[in-house]
Amino acid sequence: MSIFMVLALPVLVNAQEYIETGDSKQEIYTLVDQYLEARDTKDTVLLQSILTTDIDQLVSSGEWRMGIDVCVNGMMRSSTNNPGNRKIEIDKIRMLSPEVGIADARYEITNADGRIRKMWSTFIVVFDEKGWKITAIRNMRYGGS
Question: What is the Cα–Cα distance from 4 to 8, expressed in whole angstroms?
Fold first, then answer.
């Protein structure tokens, strides 16, 4: 029985969720704030600096965008077509490894007439030599206009 435990221990340890111990979560909050700033100001340079080249985005309309150029163009088009005050509030961040995290957030766009478009957003983020970047975004509407 003790040999089984010794052999099984590495498998059990690796199956556990990674527990973040540094500043990663705060850096991910900052990354999502930068994303919101880039969308609000239509800053394509900032947006391209915080996205991976192979980013993909599934938007609430069902459109699936693949690659940085398609995503940035779609984000800018969406910001123009859906004007309003944007707010992203992260509910939780789960670290899968020191280099991979998932941030789940509430995303709201308040239009000039006061209607609120409510969505859930999930950001998959990765750490590379330049810092944290967004590699995937999933949006889903859950209420509002």
Answer: 6
Predicted model pTM: 0.82
> For residue range 59-99, what is the model confidence (pLDDT) as tens digits?
988 899 999 999 999 999 988 887 889 999 999 999 999 99
Q: Which residues pair with residue 84 across a beta bridge?
A: none
36: CB partners within 8 A, 6+ apart = 86, 87, 88
Burial 48-86 (b: 16+ CB within 10 A, else e): eebbbeebbbbbbeeeebeebeebbeebbebbeeeebeb
Answer whether 56's CB lies under 8 Å from 74's CB: no
Domain ranges of the chain: 22-144
Q: Look at the alpha carbons of 79, 109, 50, 14 in this order and tell me if their dihedral is positive or negative.
A: negative
Q: What is the CATH number of domain 22-144?
A: 3.10.450.50
